[in-house]
Amino acid sequence: MAWFIIILLWLGNSRAQFVDITSQTEPDLEERLFGLLLRLQTEKIYDTLLIYGRDCAFPSLSSRLQVPTVLVSSGSTNFEWNFSSLTLILSCDIQAEREENYRTLMKLHLARRLILLRGDFQPESVCDFYSKKDQYNIAMVKENFDQFGVVYSCRLFQDQKYEKINFSEDKPIFIEQFRNMHGAPIRSFPDVSPPGCMAYRDPKTGEEKYIGFVADLLNNFVTKVNATLSMQMELAKNEEDLSFVNITNWAAQDLLDIGMSEALSFRMTNFDSMSYPYLMSSFCFMIPLPDKMPNSEIYMAIVTPPVLIVLFIIFCIISVMLIYIQKKSWRALSVTSVLLNDICVRGFLAQPFPVPRHSSKKLKLVLMIICFCSVITTTMYLAYLQTFLWAPPVDPFMTSFADVEKSRYKMAITTYDVDAVNSLNVSKDKVVVLESNKFGHLRGTFNDKYIYPVTAVRWMTFEKQQDNFAYPLFYYSETLCVNYFDILGFPIRRYLPYRHLFEEHMLRQKEFGLTKLWLDRSFGDMLRLNYSTIKDFNPPLLNDYVEVHNLYWVFGLYFAGLALASICFIQELLTPLGRWRFRILKL
Ligand SMILES: *[C@@H]1O[C@H](CO)[C@@H](O)[C@H](O)[C@H]1NC(C)=O
Ligand SMILES: *[C@@H]1O[C@H](CO)[C@@H](O)[C@H](O)[C@H]1NC(C)=O
Ligand SMILES: *[C@@H]1O[C@H](CO)[C@@H](O)[C@H](O)[C@H]1NC(C)=O
Ligand SMILES: *[C@@H]1O[C@H](CO)[C@@H](O)[C@H](O)[C@H]1NC(C)=O
Ligand SMILES: *[C@@H]1O[C@H](CO)[C@@H](O)[C@H](O)[C@H]1NC(C)=O
Ligand SMILES: *[C@@H]1O[C@H](CO)[C@@H](O)[C@H](O)[C@H]1NC(C)=O
Fold first, then answer.
1. Whole-angstrom Cα distance, residue 431 to residue 409?
2. Does residue 59 carry a pLDDT above 60?
3. Mutate-to-test residue for ligand 5 from 404, 424, 425, 430, highest number of ligand atoms within 8 A of CB
4. Where, by residue number, does the polypeptide cross the bilayer (predicted)?
5. Is 474 within the bounds of a domain?
6. Ligand 4 close to Cβ of residue 240 (< 6 A)
7. Which residue among 70, 77, 189, 428 is least packed, with the fewest CB closer than 10 Å?
8. CATH code of 64's domain
9. What are the pLDDT digits (tens) for 313-336?
């Protein structure tokens, strides 16, 4: 056994020497390249090596670096590899990389590339070749790298397309070229929709400019990377009704770099042409506040039958007790004497009544109960009435689309939301599809015949606007939503070479609190730029004071009682006096 292991060890050892001998065909080049790779690792760490092509020094070097390595000798993968952004690509030749897999290309788009040039390629043409593919992190070495130690690195924003770097000097090979774009244009297109993006004319230069929490972020980015904003107005083709959907499409077709707009995120299959989410919000309905109970109904609302029945029963019991205590027998009880008991009727209506003289203790007790009852019932009804007149009860809030079906409201939407609303359980005749301008006008004037979809961000401005009204008109429903979780990102070109810079900028601005500041100021900006008004859109208040016709129940009952009393009075006048005297005596 021991012999066997020794033989194995010897075999392994000699094989290693054998490999050393074969790879020593270009030992100096390999040593220098190894030094270069080590230096690249200190410049910016890489966690994966991806080697395209074979027959060059790179594959054998990778084993010495102890970094996971993927060898693609055929030059292309037909699998969706999820390479990390810290991948370093080594190509054995300019033609070696022939990647065609879209997803792999997307992943590798910003990766650094080191190319071993063989034959006589000019660095300039190599840089052109790669910049046509929108790849800018390119460095190359020629086969005589071991003699001269020169690395060529592509540079974008300067006269010469590349830079010659002496390996012994301490100059970075890959730099973040897009940190200073030297006035290069960023193609964009504004979607003027307050409060994200609002247009105004600069009073000094007369140029059209944009502010808002979407526009400001892009404006700041342009300043930060020393670029210029170039608005691609010719794309609009004089069309009026353009929206963020068009801008998202243009970005997906590589006609724009970054749109000054929200990106369409609803039902996207991939997010290649959308930035990292800028804001999270929801897309729900703003709904008119529920109706108040009309004043004319308040009087009937406070008189509820169960309470009346209870009062009636108490009335009867007290009346019976009163008669029994006075007469000390059940024979005096009759329907009329119980129901029309003089003391009880007056007492329950909170009127003064005569207290019989020489009344017993029990009678006094019952009379006291009558006094308490009268105070409690009248106070209760008075409090009830005044509360309801001050703040009439409101109808229940809508909590589901079934409530919308039953309500008097229709759903106003734009053509862009048709698909989304179709997936909700709402019948067709409840939905009104309007063009954007009409929709904007109705929603902007708080027309309370409709309910409107609105993003939480836009609702913030409506809410501030309502603060100026005599009373609020709408509320933002948290339950009736088109989309509970709405992502607001920017439309960007798929192969945008400075996507990471833009996203980092976005997060920094947000982290610093600028986004919140812009959001808080948005209603003020809208007012200043005449996108909103502080006009009160409340309908004239017809319902706020009590009018005579609101009291018809009260007057009706009053006159009915008066009529009844008159009839009794007339009857009394007409009946002979003798019968009355007899009756009075009997009582
Ligand atoms: C890469 O990620 C995608 C989705 O994120 C997944 O569908 C695919 O299987 C992954 N590829 C590999 C090789 O894991
Ligand atoms: C690179 O720099 C070293 C010393 O810094 C110098 O000796 C060498 O000649 C330079 N090589 C080239 C090609 O300029
Ligand atoms: C910004 O770009 C301009 C060219 O448009 C250039 O002159 C200027 O030096 C750049 N600024 C910085 C700080 O590099
Ligand atoms: C904008 O999009 C709408 C539909 O989304 C389309 O009908 C219209 O043609 C587009 N306009 C342009 C200029 O592309
Ligand atoms: C859709 O609405 C109808 C009536 O409006 C209701 O009967 C049905 O249950 C609803 N379906 C769902 C999935 O909510
Ligand atoms: C603001 O807009 C209204 C109509 O929307 C217009 O009548 C008014 O003149 C505008 N005011 C200013 C200062 O532009």
1. 10
2. yes
3. 425
4. 298-325, 365-384, 551-574
5. no
6. no
7. 428
8. 3.40.50
9. 999 999 999 888 888 888 878 888
Q: Do 189 and 158 lie in a common domain?
A: no
416 pLDDT above the threshold of 60: yes
**Rounded Cα gap, residues 457 and 283, in angstroms:** 9
161 and 52 assigned to the same domain? yes
Pocket of ligand 5 contains residue 402 by CB under 6 Å? yes
Determine the Cα–Cα distance for residues 359 and 499; give it in Å rounded to an integer.
98
Question: 213 and 149 in one domain?
Answer: no
The three-class DSSP label of residue 324 is helix
Q: Give the position, in ligand 3's atom list, of the atom nearest the Cα of 183.
A: 5
Give the whole-angstrom CA distance, residue 178 versus residue 224. Answer: 10
Strand 450-455 and strand 410-414: the pairing is parallel
| Ligand 1 shell residues, CB under 6 Å | 80-82
Task: Report whether residue 168 contacts ligand 2, using a CB cutoff of 6 Å.
Answer: yes
171 C-alpha vs ligand 2 centroid, how far in Å? 13
For residue range 110-139, what is the model confidence (pLDDT) as tens digits? 899 999 888 888 888 889 989 888 889 999
- Calculate how far, in angstroms, residue 515's C-alpha sits from the geometric centre of ligand 2: 50
Specify if 459 maps to a domain: no
pLDDT at 186: 93
Asked if residue 245 has its Cβ within 6 Å of ligand 4, the reply is yes
- The alpha carbon of 262 and the centre of ligand 4 are apart by a number of angstroms equal to 16
Q: How far is the CA of 168 from the centre of ligand 3 (A)?
A: 30
> Residue 164 is part of which domain span?
28-175
Other beta carbons within 10 angstroms of residue 337's beta carbon come to 16
Tell me the per-residue pLDDT of 147-177, one tens digit each, with 9 for 90 and over. 888 888 998 888 888 888 888 888 888 888 8
Q: Is 166 in the pocket of ligand 2 (CB under 6 A)?
A: yes
What's the Cα-to-Cα distance from 382 to each of 242, 308, 557, rounded to whole Å?
59, 15, 17
Residue to mutate (ligand 4; options 234, 238, 240, 246; most atoms within 8 A of CB): 246
Q: How far apart are CA 528 and CA 520, in angstroms?
A: 14
pLDDT attached to residue 405: 87
Cα of first residue to Cα of last residue in the chain, in angstroms, is: 134
Cα 276 to middle of ligand 1, angstroms: 19
Give how many domains the chain has, as a whole number.
Answer: 4
Cα(226) to centroid(ligand 3), Å: 6
Cα dihedral: 410, 414, 416, 420 (round 10)? -10
- Is 22 a residue whose pLDDT tops 70? no
Average pLDDT of the chain, as a whole number? 85
